Amino acid sequence: MPTDAADTAAAPANPLLEVSDLRVHFRLPRAARRRARRAPDLPEEAAGIPRGDTVKAVDGVDLRIAHGETLGLVGESGCGKTTLGSAVMGVRPEARGHVRYRTAQGRVIDAAAPAPEDVAVYRREVRMVFQDPYASLNPRMTLLQIVGEPLRVLLGVTGSELEDRVAAILARVGLRPDHLRRYPHAFSGGERQRVGIARALVPGPRLVVADEAVSALDVSVRSQILNLLQDLQAEMGLTYLFVSHDLSVVEHVCDRVAVMYLGRVVELSPTAALFARPLHPYTEALISAVPVPDPRLRRRRPVGPPEAAGARRDRRERIRLRGDLPDPSAPPPGCPFHTRCRHATDRCAAEVPPLREIAPGRLAACHYAEELSLAGAP
Ligand SMILES: Nc1ncnc2c1ncn2[C@@H]1O[C@H](COP(=O)(O)OP(=O)(O)OP(=O)(O)O)[C@@H](O)[C@H]1O
């Protein structure tokens, strides 16, 4: 019998991070609101002009991440992935709800409202790897300054100890430790991303939010960085929230995947199950567009016989999503996906489907998830 998401056994019992009823709503600037009021019945093709006055970038998300797990967060551009990641980092003042993190000492910090003494602990233990290795490194700082800054600011490390620790982490991410005094421009995109990873890991975090961490890299470099992230995870006992629009990458590195659509999680499943048999029509469409896997990527965990997901996907038709992502300031009533869903009925236009447990460990927000899952069985 399906149950509500809040009661489900789909999530780990003692999570490292628990996000509950997280909402990040952005009020649009006044000019955009004026335009919207002047043209309330804009045709769909007049996209780009918001029709509402608020964008619900994240709208009631519940997630739990277990220690040592990699949770993928996927969805089209604009569905709220980055906003959710930044709310987890505690840098979204608009965030409402809870982001509860269990520290190494076993205390719980709410990133949405940390006590003053917890701010530095959170910044040390929860770190971020950014997408763009060019924009995210200050070109006027040396590697020693860039990577050393969190050690200096968060842990008060200085002098030769600072140099030693920076050199050690540079070596660990595959860079030459004697390059301490070089500037970012001397490095390639892949090397810069290694610097970004070193900067994230140097104060000894436990949770890392990787936001499109390999999207800006050449395909050949991408697999090296992903393999590095997986090695570091095993070695340092890291937990990852892995934000990506690239499902082929997510398939290789994640234990579970949360699929977002217009600010909500519409499916949450273990990776192998999600790729073998998606429960939500949106997931099904995203997966049908995934290209053949990159053979250079190591799999984090075996996902069944080699024939499994890839071959099944080859047999599956490519599903073209109708139209673009709706205006996020005026989402459709009922199921937010119904305007693009090939299975939608009148019920979908009227009733919001709750995120509920469809099978053990698997949640979906679709009125017809059970039927679709059976119909889509390979
Ligand atoms: N500061 C902001 N003010 C107003 N709207 C915002 C702001 N930041 C994000 N948004 C809107 O919130 C929605 C979600 O954006 P977000 O960047 O989180 O999506 P995303 O899935 O990460 O997309 P992408 O992959 O393109 O970064 C979008 O409609 C975006 O335009």
From TrEMBL:
Keyword Transport: yes
A Pfam cross-reference name: ABC_tran
Signal peptide positions on this chain: none
Keywords carried by this UniProt record: ATP-binding, Nucleotide-binding, Transport
The organism's place on the tree of life at top rank: Bacteria
InterPro entries found in the cross-reference section: AAA+_ATPase, ABC_transp_ATP-bind, ABC_transporter-like_ATP-bd, ABC_transporter-like_CS, Oligopep_ABC_C, P-loop_NTPase
Protein's UniProt keywords contain Nucleotide-binding: yes
Listed Basic and acidic residues bias regions: 310-325
GO molecular function, one term: ATP hydrolysis activity
Domain ABC transporter: start-end pairs: 37-287
Region (Disordered) residue spans: 297-335
GO biological process, one term: peptide transport
Family: Belongs to the ABC transporter superfamily.
PANTHER family reported for this sequence: D,D-DIPEPTIDE TRANSPORT ATP-BINDING PROTEIN DDPF-RELATED, TRANSPORT ATP-BINDING PROTEIN
Name of this protein: ATP-binding cassette domain-containing protein
Organism annotation: Streptomonospora mangrovi
